[in-house]
Design a protein that fits this description.
The chain is 80% helix and 0% strand. The longest helix has 18 residues.
Length: 113
């Protein structure tokens, strides 16, 4: 199993288990997350790039992988991704560099699948 399949399978499996507990607050948070990235006055590509940049600055590798996958799905180019990487690294500072490395690796894996 490759890096992408492993991440997506684990994420799906755990989300199912969490949502099966039928906790109203958790379900509402998941719903808010889904709706926040839906098409609106800001297009989906821009929302995913914003999500990616924020995730990098907050140093959440799972979130970075998720948004990279979505960015790849909606047709964001490598050049655009690296512009997002540059903004996130500028805003987040050098502490973001390890996450930048893992993000670049994950993007490369997405491109090569």
């Amino acid at each position: 199993m490759n890096l992408i399949e492993e991440f997506n399978e684990y994420r799906s499996q755990m989300n199912e288990k969490i949502l099966a507990e039928d906790n109203k607050v958790i379900k509402r948070i998941f719903n808010l997350d889904t709706n926040a990235y839906a098409e609106g006055s800001v297009d989906i590509k821009s929302k995913e790039m914003i999500g990616l940049a924020c995730s990098m600055v907050l140093r959440c590798d799972d979130c970075v992988k998720y948004h990279l996958g979505k960015c790849h799905e909606v047709g964001i180019t490598k050049e655009q991704i690296f512009e997002v990487f540059s903004i996130a690294t500028l805003i987040g500072g050098t502490i973001v560099i390890p996450h930048l490395r893992r993000a670049a690796e994950y993007w490369e894996t997405l491109e090569n699948q």
